[in-house]
Design brief:
By secondary structure, the protein is of the alpha+beta class. α2 runs antiparallel to α6, α3 crosses α6 and α5 runs antiparallel to α6. A hairpin with a 5-residue loop joins β4 and β5. The protein starts with 17 loop residues before the first helix and ends with a helix. The longest helix is centred in the first third of the chain and has 26 residues. Strands 1, 2, 3, 4, 5, 6, 7, 8, 9 and 10 form a 10-stranded mixed beta sheet that branches. The protein is 43% helix and 19% strand.
């Protein structure tokens, strides 16, 4: 399941009928209210009527809870992420699970709704009874308890930060599954089977997503403050680019804003607003990629003499923090695309790379650190180019921040 966009707000519409739509939503308290009496009665029935010992009842119950973790893994990996060319199958998979990946924070669909839940539970109890006979009255409560534990963990992972350090691996595994690679990390209540079947995210993969969120340039002391006002600070430094290429300029803009990572991504992919906040941008085109967190942006600038018109083609990649909507990174670099070929009357800007680093400031919003490095033209002396580049960058960041805060 791949989506052009992951929505952190709102929910999918699964049916046109509002009555059917209501049946696709539930609250955890409803599911607990349905199953806790069933669990209690079946365990009581097994001990008092069927005559099973307390030890056997307890052990069967615990084995069933453990069995749920394997069932959870298999269903999640092979049913909920089933890939098919048949529209009917794709529709069923989307209804069961795909909508959750498109709207991961929809709390009303984190538990299986009552009607399909009862149907599936009845089917499972029948299967258990066919194979286990009367033992099913001990096994089924444990299996359903495993489901309730899974549902509770799933709800908590999408609703809150991990309350204890030892739970962080579960949170990280599931958030990486949603925001990095949905072909790994299928366990929710446990990472055991991800480890057994080698679908666990590696520690390095986790660090790639989490560590950059608090990382700064290793040589911040090299930067020189070139312009500042009450809300934005603009820095600059020059980096060696090889013996024949001289040096390249790296600009860094730092500012705080009341917003979040997804809002920044939406603004960066908004073609109409792109020509507003990008100073001198005459064209701003966005080409979504197959991977929902990647896109290509083409910009064409109307630059006065002595520069002349310029354009660039950039590949963007979003890394969202698993459980903090105001922390993340959007990196970009020069790329080639057949959709935006180089033309003779426009100078193509190359060697561009940079990032939008977003860090949570708590109640004060988030801090954005924007850095960009671009090869400079050797035909234009720095005493001419420097003031123009700095003023354009400062105005660009100021406009971007203003638009972002109004959203």
């Amino acid at each position: 399941m791949k989506f052009e966009k992951i929505h952190n707000q709102g929910q999918a519409q699964l049916f046109r009928s509002r009555y059917l739509e209501m049946l696709t939503k539930t609250h955890p308290a409803v599911i607990f209210g349905m199953y806790l009496p069933v669990i209690g009665y079946m365990l009581y029935y097994s001990y008092t009527v069927l005559g099973y010992s307390f030890l056997r009842t307890t052990m069967t119950y615990l084995v069933a809870m453990f069995s749920w973790t394997l069932f959870e893994y298999i269903i999640h990996r092979y049913i909920f992420h089933l890939i098919s060319d048949k529209p009917v199958v794709r529709r069923v998979v989307y209804t069961l699970h795909g909508n959750h990946h498109e709207y991961p924070r929809d709390k009303q669909r984190l538990f299986m709704p009552p009607v399909p839940s009862v149907i599936i539970a009845s089917f499972l109890f029948t299967v258990f009874y066919l194979f286990l006979k009367k033992n099913a009255f001990m096994f089924f409560p444990g299996f359903v308890s495993g489901y309730l534990l899974y549902g509770s963990m799933h709800y908590a992972i999408h609703a809150w930060a991990p309350p204890f350090k030892w739970l962080k691996s579960l949170w990280r595994n599931h958030h990486l599954h949603h925001y990095k690679n949905d072909e790994l990390g299928f366990g929710v209540s446990s990472t055991l089977w991800d480890r057994v079947f080698r679908t666990m995210f590696s520690i390095c993969a986790g660090l790639l997503l989490v560590q950059p969120l608090s990382a700064h340039q290793s040589a911040d002391s090299d930067y020189k403050l070139v312009k500042r006002d009450k809300s934005i600070a603009l820095y600059e430094r020059w980096l060696p680019a090889g013996e024949s290429e001289g040096s390249v300029r790296e600009i860094k803009a730092v500012f705080a804003v009341k917003s979040d990572v997804q809002a920044v991504a939406r603004l960066l992919t908004d073609q109409q607003q792109g020509v507003v906040w990008n100073v001198r941008a005459r064209t701003y085109r966005v080409l979504p990629m197959v991977e929902s967190r990647e896109w290509i942006t083409y910009l064409k600038y109307n630059i006065p003499w002595p520069f002349g018109d310029q354009d660039c083609c950039l590949l963007f990649h979003l890394k969202a923090h698993p459980y903090n909507e105001r922390s993340g990174e959007i990196s970009f670099e020069s790329t080639l695309s057949n959709r935006f070929p180089v033309t003779g009357d426009v100078t193509r800007i190359t060697g561009t790379r940079g990032r939008w680093l977003m860090e949570d400031l708590g109640d004060n919003g988030m801090q954005i650190t924007y850095t960009i490095t671009t090869n400079r033209s050797t035909r234009i002396p720095r005493w001419v180019s420097d003031p123009i580049v700095r003023n354009n960058m400062f105005e660009t960041m100021s406009t971007f921040r203003s638009i972002l805060e109004k959203r």
